[in-house]
Write a structure and sequence with these properties.
Elements: H1 5-13, H2 15-51, H3 54-59, H4 63-108, H5 111-114, H6 119-132, H7 134-161, H8 163-187, H9 189-211, H10 213-218, H11 222-275, H12 280-295, H13 297-305, H14 307-321, E1 342-350, E2 358-367, E3 372-376, H15 383-390, E4 398-403, E5 406-407, H16 413-419, E6 420-423, E7 432-433, H17 434-438, H18 447-456, H19 460-464, E8 473-474, H20 483-496, E9 501-505, H21 513-526, E10 531-535, E11 547-550, E12 563-565
Parallel strand pairs: 3-10, 3-11, 6-9, 9-10
Antiparallel strand pairs: 1-2, 1-4, 4-5, 7-8, 11-12
Length: 575
């Protein structure tokens, strides 16, 4: 995707609102210049009339200019309010759409692609990078377009009233609106890039320090962490100082251009007054109107000084939206059945970054509907990798995985993820209520379905005993719940999904022995009627699974992954 193509697509969809904002900005600029011009003409004419004879004073009409002053004042006030309202509304809509587009682009990427980014950096792209792009329209594009149109109108007036100065004023105004911003834009690239990079580094540092706070304190690492954070703050401050200096320098150039334009009007206007064709009040009006015109160049310069950060943010965003996902849906995806057997045939997989290290080789497995199978083996034997392949978070180098007889590569990923759900060992809980955390599993679920899932996960009694029940707030990562309760809440969320196959990746990691045993003993009852594939190091109680698969570390030519019967299943109580 070319530079700016994403924004052009979004702007094109909002062009009526953008055009209305530019029109209001133009009306505001024209009313401001008109107000100064009429005021200059009015005050000068009144002063000259008062100094002349009584008869001359009677010939000066006070009502028309005073009415124009009031009219332009009200127009400017109303247009400025409407322009601010419309501009901020459309900008917020643009940023919201851009943030949604970026999030959808992130969702298309595979876990391996996302692993290239630190979590704080991704958050920075969704927040500060997107926010930096409000500069493009609100503080640069709209002011620039309205200023150029206002300059065209003022040049036409000067060509009518004072042709000798029209060219010089137009040249000075174009320099103020185009040449100076272009120079600032060139100079602002480096500090703008530094501002966005430092913002991402600071956000990452804060997030990682918060998550690792206990380790930092226990290892006495507070001092180096604080030094690193202070260095990042200083880099950000230096970059923002350079950006502020560029903005101040640009304003100085605008003042110089304004002075040159006023001198041109005075040079030509005084001669015209002396020769008689131009009344002095008209010259005063042209001077003040030109001064009001150049005020419209100020926002353009301020926006240009911030454009370096906006362009750097756009580059960082388009690096995500333009990334090609590792996995693609087929052109004509096949429809998956609602339920079916999960089969693995001849599976061979090695990480692309280490193709010589084969993780899985020659895997043949069958997971009949409603069965429960445990994947065991040493760390690194490929248990989590196999679960990711079953969910098609990656594709094997050879072999295939079928659901209901259909190769998972022949169906849409969205369709597959409705049939197969994953409960990871680090499944997150979010800041919000128990209800909102559960609804992630099924946004359409009613209270009966939520309670049924909680009861199946053996958490319903606890939640019913809370003062606010389903509307009880919990913190990030399940703060306010024990580790076991948080894990059961994550299980209840997965149970709410319509998936026929549940993949559980070390669901008891971090639990004490008693809580682990209770969780695994409740698993048959909670997942009754669904296919369960459980990757675990835990000691499984009798009846927890029906089959075991030992995934020993496999190398090229070694066949692994053969199922052995588990302990006899205990009778399952009704759900």
């Amino acid at each position: 995707m070319g530079r700016g193509r994403l924004l052009r697509q979004i702007y094109r969809r909002h062009w009526p609102s953008l055009a209305a904002t530019v029109a209001l900005a133009l009306l505001t600029a024209a009313a401001g210049a008109g107000l100064l011009g009429v005021a200059g003409w009015f005050l000068t004419g009144a002063a000259l009339a008062g100094a002349a004879s009584a008869s001359a004073a009677q010939t000066f009409n006070l009502f028309a200019p005073s009415a124009l002053v009031r009219g332009f004042s009200f127009i400017r006030i109303g247009a400025r309010y409407a322009e601010r309202l419309a501009g901020h509304t459309v900008t917020l809509h643009l940023l919201a759409e851009l943030r949604g587009t970026l999030f959808r682009a992130l969702a298309r990427l595979s876990p391996r692609q996302l692993a290239r980014y630190r979590s704080g950096d991704l958050v920075a792209r969704l927040t500060s990078d997107v926010d930096a792009l409000d500069t493009l329209f609100l503080t640069l594009m709209a002011p620039l377009l309205s200023a150029l149109l206002a300059g065209l109108a003022m040049t036409a007036i000067l060509a009518w009233q004072l042709p000798a100065a029209a060219g010089a004023v137009a040249a000075a105004f174009l320099a103020a609106c185009l040449l100076v911003p272009a120079l600032l834009l060139y100079q602002a690239r480096a500090p703008g890039q530094a501002i966005q990079d430092s913002a991402a580094q600071l956000r990452t540092a804060v997030q990682e320090a918060t998550e690792g706070h206990a380790d930092i304190l226990s290892l006495a690492l507070s001092a180096p962490v604080l030094r690193h954070f202070d260095q990042s703050c200083r880099r950000a401050a230096r970059a923002r100082g350079v950006q502020a200096g560029l903005g101040a320098g640009g304003q100085s150039l605008i003042h110089a251009a304004t002075g040159a334009a006023l001198l041109a009007i005075l040079w030509a206007g005084l001669d015209a007054v002396a020769r008689g064709p131009m009344p002095p009040p008209v010259l005063a009006g042209l001077l003040l109107a030109t001064l009001g015109l150049f005020e419209t160049a100020g926002p353009v310069v301020r926006g240009a000084a911030r454009m370096g950060a906006a362009l750097a943010a756009l580059t960082r965003i388009e690096a995500i939206t333009g990334a090609e996902p590792d996995l693609h849906d087929p052109p004509a995806p096949r429809k998956l059945p609602a339920a079916g057997a999960l089969q693995v045939r001849g599976l061979r997989y090695a990480y692309p970054e280490a193709p010589d290290r084969v993780v899985l080789d020659g895997i043949d497995l069958d997971f009949p509907p409603g069965s429960r199978t445990a994947l065991t083996g040493a760390s690194g034997s490929g248990k989590s990798t196999l679960l990711h392949l079953l969910l098609r978070l990656d594709d094997p180098q050879s072999g295939c995985i079928r659901f209901g007889g259909i190769d998972v590569r022949d169906c849409a990923q969205r369709d597959l993820h409705r049939r197969i759900a994953l409960l990871a060992q680090d499944a997150p809980l979010f800041l919000g209520t128990i209800r909102t955390n559960l609804l992630i599993g099924d946004p359409q679920a009613d209270d009966d379905a939520l309670w049924h899932a909680l009861d199946a996960a053996r958490l319903g009694g606890f939640v019913r005993g809370l003062p606010h029940g389903l509307d009880t707030w919990i913190g990030e990562t399940g703060a306010g719940l024990s580790v076991g309760q948080a894990r059961r809440l994550a299980l209840a969320r997965v149970l709410l999904s319509p998936a026929a196959v549940l993949l559980l990746d070390e669901p008891t990691a971090g639990l004490d022995a008693d809580t682990e045993a209770e969780f695994l003993a409740d698993l048959p009852r909670a997942t009754r009627g669904r296919t369960v594939v459980l990757a675990t190091h835990a000691a499984l109680p009798p009846g927890a699974v029906q089959h075991r698969v030992s995934l020993d570390a496999s190398y090229p030519g070694v066949r692994a992954g053969h199922a052995t019967p588990g302990e006899p299943s205990e009778p399952e109580s009704p759900a």
